[in-house]
Structures are given as structure tokens and as C-alpha cells.
Amino acid sequence: MMSRDECHRHLEIDVDGRVVATADVEQHDQSGVVRAALNVEPGHQPTGSRTRLVDAVLDRPEVHDQQRLEATLPIGDTEILERLRERCDDVQTRPAGATCLVDAGLPEANRPSQPPAAAADDHGGGASPIT
């Protein structure tokens, strides 16, 4: 059985030292499902912050071997939803109040296109796991 630290990660996307988006990622024992709650700070955020958040979640090593993603995100957040559709298979959505629930297949080839640290450096900010 996995410990809480092995199955739960808190990720942050920062721009110029300010956290603009976060995600809590949970992997459940042997189920093939990973759950993620994606959140963006209120107000205008730099273009690409939401895309970087999705990439940070999907590029986590513990996500690579999973089959399905169950995610929550703010309803109407088209940048996050579009990136999920680009990177995942069979994306299904449904509203739940102010939240959008997403069920998606994770492709076997779900491997980072570049190391997460390099991606963060290229954009002037970072995706930092907080355990």
C-alpha cells in the first residue's frame, strides 16, 4: 500500500515568484486512475499558465503508468480544457456547479516532451511539487 506522500502531490505554477495556479494530484493504489484538482488564482494570469499547469500534472512520473484521469477544474476555463483535449484521449466533461468534471483516457505515450525543469525555465517560472 502506498503512503500518502507517495500518492499525493501538490504542484504550483509560479510566474515572477507569484503562484498563479495549483494542482493537487492523487494516485490511487492499483486502480489505474489518477485524480487531479486544478485551480487558477483569480484575476488575469499570463497566457500559457494554465497550459503549463496541465503539462505539470500529465508529466508527473506517477501519472505515466495510469490509464484514466479524473479532474476538476473551474467551469469555463477553456485553456485548461483545450490542453487536456490535446494531451488526453476520449475527454468527457460535465458541469457540477462552478466546477467542470473531466474524465479522460491517458495515452500510453504520455511522456514529457521535455523535462519539467527545462519547461519551467523556458517560461520564466516553475512548476514546483510540494509534498
What can you see in these coordinates?
With 131 residues, the protein is of the alpha+beta class. The protein has one domain (4-109): Aminopeptidase, CATH 3.40.630. 27% of the residues lie in helices and 41% in strands. It is built from five helices and seven strands, in the order αβββααβαββαβ. A seven-stranded mixed β-sheet has the order 5-6-4-3-2-1-7. The longest helix is centred in the middle third of the chain and has 10 residues, at 49-58. It is globular. The model is unreliable at 1-5 and 114-125 (pLDDT under 50).
**Can you count the helices?**
5
Beta-strand residue percentage: 35-45%
Spatial sequence of strands, sheet with the most strands = 5-6-4-3-2-1-7
Overall pLDDT metric: 83
**Straight-line N-to-C gap:** 18 Å
Low-confidence stretches: 1-5, 114-125
Radius of gyration: 14 Å
Instruction: From the 3D structure, determine the CATH topology.
Output: Aminopeptidase
Tell me the total number of β-strands: 7
CATH architectural group: 3-Layer(aba) Sandwich
Could you estimate the helical fraction of the residues in percent? 25-40%
